[in-house]
Amino acid sequence: MELQVAKQAVRTASKLAHTVAQHHISSISKSDQSPVTVADFGAQAVIISALKQAFPGDPVVGEEDAAALRADDTLANKVWALVKEAAPHDKNLSERTNLFAAIDAGNYAGSAKGRQWALDPIDGTKGFLRGGQYAVCLALIVDSRVELGVIGCPNLGPRGGLFSAVRGKGAFWEPLFEESTPEKISFRHIESTKDATFCESVESGHSALDTQLKIAQSLGISNPPVQMDSQAKYCSLAKGDADIYLRLPVRMDYEEKIWDHAAGNILITEAGGVVTDMNGNLLDFGKGRTLKDNKGVIAAAKSIHSDVLKAVQKALL
Ligand SMILES: Nc1ncnc2c1ncn2[C@@H]1O[C@H](COP(=O)(O)O)[C@@H](OP(=O)(O)O)[C@H]1O
Ligand SMILES: [Mg+2]
Questions:
Q1: Which of 74, 97, 145, 278: CA 20 to 30 A from 170?
Q2: Which run of H or E residues covers position 163?
Q3: CA of 263, nearest ligand number
Q4: pTM assigned to the model
Q5: Residue of 12, 37, 40, 193 with catalytic role
């Protein structure tokens, strides 16, 4: 039940985002930031509305709130038009005033106990704007642990990708814009760590790319890193296109947001991988809206994760 609702909601929001992105890329004002803002609000509204109808009591930790929309009627009208097109029969979104409430329902502070959804309506803002990777990410967290994750990646592969995982049930891929039977996915087998390929952020402000390059060299890795925005990185590892995702902090005071990692976390573990922080601890999704007890992220196949962790710790001594 949860999986079907989450997949349907992510699909609807991904289509909405894809429509805006296509239009943005073909337009002449590529420096305009507003398309991603519009897509972000629209995606959050349709997903939270679907969740609230299926699971009325469940709180949602969503990245956005509606303050900027309430203050800007032109922006609100653009978002409203998109939402009506993407979800015309949604009775929770029958009037424009409901739009604000749906978006603001993502204001949950987070909790260590009980159910909560974590939502990043458009992850990889920068990727969206440059025509690269971005992702619509939704996860169900129960008692601080991720139980279900769904990620929509409109630009990953020729047909886009809808990735999903439920604890104990494996990880799956299916095309994003057409209905078809999900295919099971998993990490690829590599003989040794030196054969691995790194996947990392494009943005040097989001992870310590220089240090990561040194770590790759210390592991004997000569393959160039694959750089992409958003949780599409987790998806790439889970489907066997790369082997290690490192996200080492640029600033030690930055707290990673739970919506940037929750869905990817279960996708990795269900595809045969391990995710820890740079101290080797599992990510704790029960500390509020951020991963405040963790620093950095290391995701890798089970067989090589401990080698990578050792190399990270040596580099950071
Ligand atoms: N200083 C920082 N360190 C790490 N992550 C950061 C950061 N500043 C912003 N981010 C997060 O990095 C996410 C994108 O990560 P990536 O580089 O892997 O694409 C952003 O998500 P949004 O794009 O949803 O805002 C944002 O939440
Ligand atoms: Mg994000």
A1: 278
A2: strand 161-166
A3: 2
A4: 0.97
A5: 40
Report the 10 Å Cβ neighbour count for 246. 27
Known binding residue 260? Answer is yes
Nearest CA to ligand 1 atom 7: 206
Q: What is the pLDDT of residues 115-161, one digit of tens each?
A: 999 999 999 999 999 999 999 999 999 999 999 999 999 999 988 99
258 assigned to a ligand binding site:
no
Rounded to the nearest angstrom, the distance between the alpha carbon of 181 and the centre of ligand 2 is: 28
Please report which residue ranges of the chain form alpha helices under DSSP H.
2-26, 34-54, 67-70, 73-86, 96-104, 125-130, 209-218, 232-238, 262-270, 302-316
pLDDT value at position 34? Answer: 86
- For 275, the token pair is 């995710």
Residue 95 assigned ligand-binding role: no
CA of 241 to the centre of ligand 1 (A): 22
CATH number at residue 11: 3.30.540.10
Distance CA 286, CA 228 (A): 28
Q: Which residues touch 297 (CB under 8 Å, ≥6 apart)?
A: 245, 246, 247, 256, 261, 275, 276, 277, 278, 283
CA–centroid distance, 229 to ligand 2, in Å, is 9
Looking at ligand 1, which residue's alpha carbon is closest to its atom 4? 206
Structural domain ending residue among the three candidates 185, 203, 228: 185
- Expressed as residue numbers, the domain containing 285 is 193-316
Lowest-pLDDT choice from 27-41, 94-108, 146-160, 163-177: 27-41
Q: Token digits for 36? A: 């991603």
Instruction: Show the ligand 1 pocket: residues with CB < 6 angstroms.
Output: 120, 123-125, 201, 203, 205-206, 229-230, 250-251, 254, 257, 260
The number of the ligand 1 atom at minimal distance from the alpha carbon of 134 is 19
CATH code assigned at 310: 3.40.190.80
Whole-number pLDDT of residue 28: 61
Place of tokens 């939270």: 48
Residues 170, 200 share a domain: no
Share of the chain above pLDDT 70, in %: 98
